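Dear Dr. L.,

I hope this message finds you well. Following up on our conversation about the binding site, I have prepared a predicted three-dimensional model of the protein together with L-homoserine. For your records, I am including the exact sequence and ligand specification that went into the calculation, followed by the structure tokens. Please feel free to forward this to your student if that is useful.
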Amino acid sequence: MRFQKAEVSSPASIANFGPGFDSFGLCLASPVDRISISRVDGDEFAVKVEGAQGLTEKAEENTASYAALKLAERCECEHKGFSMTIQKGMKPGSGIGSSAASSVGGAVAMAALLGVRDKRLILEAAAKGEELISGSRHFDNVAAALYGGFTFVSDHASKSIVRIEPPEFEVVVLLPEIEIRTADAREILPKSVPMADAVENLSWAAGMVHSMMKKDLDAIAHHMNDRLAIPYRQGLVPGYASVRESALNAGALAVSIGGSGPAVFAIAREKTDRIQQAMVEALMSSAGLESESFVTKPGTGAKVLSAT
Ligand code: HSE
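The resulting structure of the complex is given below.
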């Protein structure tokens, strides 16, 4: 069934989630972007961005409208006139999958308008939106934002995604007041890594997937390690070592960097107020940086709020 107007919400997510560089993603319950799209007369695609500075409103350059356009093209949609409003609920460049939230939201909104239900088509269109911004077509954030829960890419060539329902836990997120472009954070990664590091990550990643399947939070925390990206990137996040130590001392079960940073996240069963405060204070005392922070939980993915 085809509609005139659709509104969707699309959530933040944490890519890599410890050992799963470019593979693991955890969907967050909040914050979300809200995206609405309508059919309009003519052949112009008008885009309006609210709630964030500096994002382009050119349809071919904005990640949400670009993903929507890619889905419309793939579905051979002949209608060309659209109007899209993107209400950003999260800060771009902060490491919680802002561009993926927008691209998934744009693709899901267009899919709702066109009556398309095939999630593979939506995923591929969303990944093109992500690629436009980051310069690389990685599926970790987009899969988590689209499918919800804990996701991983089980085969990059066929873009196979596996979703696991995580156990209940709290996620404390700290967003230092700096911005890191994903493309820059990818540029500093080495082209090859020592075999011992690859083996260690492989073991941690297998342990993480097994722990998620068993819904064993202590084991999830135990496997929250990484030698493929964080050792090279942690210098981009001032005060990371101090924030991590303070969060663990305040009761966090594990701490890592969200995606390409600068977000730092902690997982916990309880004491989230204490952990949040400890992280904010440690960032200020060790690096002199202000931050935004919030507490959330694993989420269930992008949703169509209305289609009329
Ligand atoms: N896996 C990607 C990276 C996520 O770490 O570069 C970027 O958001």
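In brief: The chain has two domains: 5-165+298-307, 170-296.

With kind regards,
A. P.
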